[in-house]
Amino acid sequence: MKEKNQNYNILAANLLERISTEKKKVENLNTKIADLTTKLTEAEKKEPQIVYRASYRTREVIKEVENPKTTRQLRQASKIINKLDDNQQIISQEISDQILKAQVQQIAFSEKQIADLKKEIENKQTQIDRLEKLSHGSKSIVAKRNEKVKSLKAELTATQQENEALVNQVKELETKLAAAQNQKTVIVVPVPEINDILGEEKSSDTDGEETGSETSELPPYETNPHAAPNYDNEEELQELAKYFADLAYERDETIKVLQSAINNLVPELDS
User: Fold this and answer.
1) Are 163 and 216 in contact (CB under 8 A)?
2) Tell me, what's the pLDDT at 223?
3) Count of CB atoms within 10 A of residue 43's CB?
């Protein structure tokens, strides 16, 4: 379209230049006619021959001006100019339409960009809200894990204390067992629940014979649950010692599990 418009403009410029040239020729001829008419008027007062020559030249000039070819060219030039004016108006209208269309498209594109930006902002806000919720949830999880760590540490401490107590009891039993093996004396086990552990109960008809120990005069375990039962059986004492050793081993394993759980939780809390 631009190239076509440029071609029209070049053609119009050429025609305008030609028309301008023709107009100048006409103006020159009119000027010559006026000059010749003036000279003719002056010559009429002087000599007839001059008048004749002037009249002849005037007629030639008029003839040239009234030449059909020149007139036709002028009419064609006028038509071309009018056509160019019409084409120029059409081209101007088309250009205006194209500009308006481009502006409408630009506005539509801008509106789409604005809508896309709004949508992107909404998505970002949704992500921010979700991250805030996750942050609150993470804080809650961290707090719960902190509480769990504290609880596990407390449980670990209590288990360690219980384990130490059991180890001390096992050592005491081992000492008493060694003493019983050497001296063949009665060992007093300070654990009232031992009958439940071994799955045995003393009969209610204990003869209460004296064994050289100060605790031999205590009533039977069945009649006095808080009294410590007496064992003079070496096998039972060994079983009791083995039981406490197994119990201490289980406590150690429990401590290891708790310590592992704490070690696994602490890096997560640090991260």
Assistant:
1) no
2) 41
3) 18
User: Which residues does 189 contact at the CB level (< 8 Å), separation at least 6?
Assistant: 173, 176, 228, 229, 231, 237, 240
In three-state secondary structure terms, 231 is strand
As separate numbers, helices (DSSP H) first and strands (DSSP E) second, the chain gives 5, 2
Helix, strand, coil % over all residues of the chain, rounded to 5: 80, 0, 15
Please identify which residue in the block is written with the tokens 């003719």: 40
Compare 231 and 158 and report the one with higher pLDDT: 158
- As a whole number of angstroms, the distance between CA 213 and CA 82 comes to 145
Coil/strand/helix, residue 237 = helix
Burial class from Cβ neighbours inside 10 Å (0-12, 13-18, 19+) for residue 109 reads exposed
Residue 206, SS3 per DSSP: coil
Global pTM value: 0.28
Give me the residues paired with residue 187 across strands. Answer: 231
